[in-house]
Amino acid sequence: MKADKNTIEQAYAFFHQKLKVYEHSTSEREMDHIEDTIADYANSMSKDLFNELSQGNPAFLHEHSTFQDDLTKAVLMMESWIGEAATLTK
Fold first, then answer.
1. Burial (0-12, 13-18, 19+ Cβ within 10 Å), 31
2. Spatial separation of the C-alpha atoms in residues 77 and 90, rounded to whole Å
3. CB–CB of 21/30 below 8 Å?
4. Which of 3, 13, 18, 38 could bond 49 through an S-S bridge, CB–CB 3.0 to 4.6 Å?
């Protein structure tokens, strides 16, 4: 993992919060807004972190048809990395 712990934790907190709202939303407008917000964040986030999460897929977190799966995958990956880092520091 090339991205530092703080970068991962910041992205994780943001993505996790947005995913929870997205999963329970019944408003297309709200869901579209979350998709746009996450895509904007992905465009400006650490390139190392984006590359790790996307595994070379430039459309990752940018396509409506795969957005929820992509976001879920990103949250789970970062959760795993944070857990691994916590284990190493014990």
1. middle
2. 21
3. yes
4. 3
Q: How far apart are CA 90 and CA 75, in angstroms?
A: 23
Number of alpha helices (DSSP H) and beta strands (DSSP E) in the chain: 4, 0
Is residue 73 classed exposed, middle or buried when 0-12, 13-18 and 19+ CB atoms within 10 A define those classes? middle
Q: Which residues contact 41 (CB under 8 A, 6 or more apart)?
A: 11, 14
Asked whether the beta carbons of 44 and 61 are under 8 A apart, the reply is no
The structure's pTM equals: 0.91
**Please, what are the averages of pLDDT over each run of 10 residues along the chain (90 residues)?**
87 98 98 98 96 96 98 97 72
What does the pLDDT read at residue 83? 87
